[in-house]
Amino acid sequence: MTVRADLQGQVAVVTGASSGIGHHFCSVLTENGATVIAAARRLDRLEKVVADGAAAEAVQCDVTNADDVERLIEAAKYRGGPDIVVNAAGWAKDTPATETPLDEFRQTLEVDLTAIFSVAATAARAMSDGGSIINIASILGLGASWPITQAAYCAAKGGVINLTRQLGAEWASKGIRVNAIAPGWFPSELTDEMFENEKAMGWIKRNTPIGRPGRLDELDGALLLMASPTSTYLTGQVLAVDGGWTAR
Ligand SMILES: NC(=O)c1ccc[n+]([C@@H]2O[C@H](COP(=O)([O-])OP(=O)(O)OC[C@H]3O[C@@H](n4cnc5c(N)ncnc54)[C@H](OP(=O)(O)O)[C@@H]3O)[C@@H](O)[C@H]2O)c1
Question: Are the C-beta atoms of 181 and 157 separated by less than 8 Å?
Fold first, then answer.
C-alpha cells in the first residue's frame, strides 16, 4: 500500500539526503511531485541520488556551516521555494555520560539541534508564501536512551521537539507549519551496527509492542501528512512513528 499526496509545484529541501531516512524521503517527495534539493556533505552520494531520479539537484552542505545553509536555501529560492524543508541530517555517538568530553557533547548539539534551528530559520526567512518544515527528532527525544549511553543525543532530540513546538507557534501567523517526526528504530547507516547485532535486535523486538523495527516506508504517511499543503491546521506537533515504543 502506498500513501500519496499532491506535492506538484512544491520545492522541497532535504538535509541528510546522502543516506538512510533523508535519502528515502527524497524519493518519496519526488514520487509525489515535489522538486527535491538533496543536501549533505558527501557530494558523490548526492549525485547518485540525483542520477537515480530521487532528487532534482544536489547541494553539498555541512548543516553546521551557516554559509553552506544560506547557499542551500538560495538554491531552493532560485527554483521558487522552499515550500517544504526536511531536517534529516543527524549524528549520534555512544559514550557514557561521565566519560563524554564537553567537545563531543557540544558537537552533538551543534549537528542535532543548532543546525536544525539554523536550517529552519534560514528557510523560514525565505518562505514568503508559507511552507512546511519537518524536523526528524527521535523517540530518544521523548525519553531516555538507557541502556544505550547517548546523553548528548537525547538532550539534542528533546531540544528538537520543544523547538518544533516553539517555531510552530511563532511562525503560525506566517503560514509556516513546523512539525516533527520521532522515529523508533529504522535501518540506516546510523543504526547499521545495531541491526547487525543479534542481541541488540532482540532488545529492540522485545521492547517494541509491534515486535520488530520499522521499515523506512512506514515513515511515509507521517512525512506526507506533514508535507501536504492540505494539512493547514497541523503545526507544532510531534508524531512518534515507533511501533508503540513510547506507548509502553
Ligand atoms: N535510523 C533510526 O532508527 C533513527 C531513529 C530516530 C531518529 N533518527 C534520526 O533520523 C535522521 C536521519 O538519520 P538516519 O538514521 O537516516 O542516519 P544516517 O543514514 O546516518 O543519515 C544521516 C545523514 O545526516 C547527514 N549528516 C550528518 N552530519 C551532517 C552535517 N554536519 N551536515 C550535513 N549532513 C550531515 C549524513 O550525510 P553526510 O555524512 O554525507 O553529511 C547522512 O546523510 C537523524 O536526525 C537521526 O537522528 C534515526
Answer: no
Domain count, the chain: 1
158 lines ligand 1 (CB under 6 A): no
CATH no. for residue 163? 3.40.50.720
Percent of the chain with pLDDT over 70: 100
Residue 222 CA to residue 29 CA, distance in Å, equals 12
2 is a domain residue: no
Determine the 3-state secondary structure of 190 from DSSP. coil
Q: Each residue of 176-218: pLDDT tens digit?
A: 999 999 999 999 999 999 999 999 999 999 999 999 999 999 9
Distance CA 153, CA 106 (A): 10
17 CA → ligand 1 middle, Å:
8
Residue with cell 551557516: 66
**Ligand 1: which of 47, 114, 188 to mutate, most ligand atoms within 8 Å of CB?**
188
Catalytic residue IDs: 153
Tell me if 247 is assigned to some domain.
no
Nearest CA to ligand 1 atom 34: 40
Please tell me the distance between residue 161's alpha carbon and the centre of ligand 1 in angstroms: 17
- Residue ranges making up the domain that contains 202: 11-241
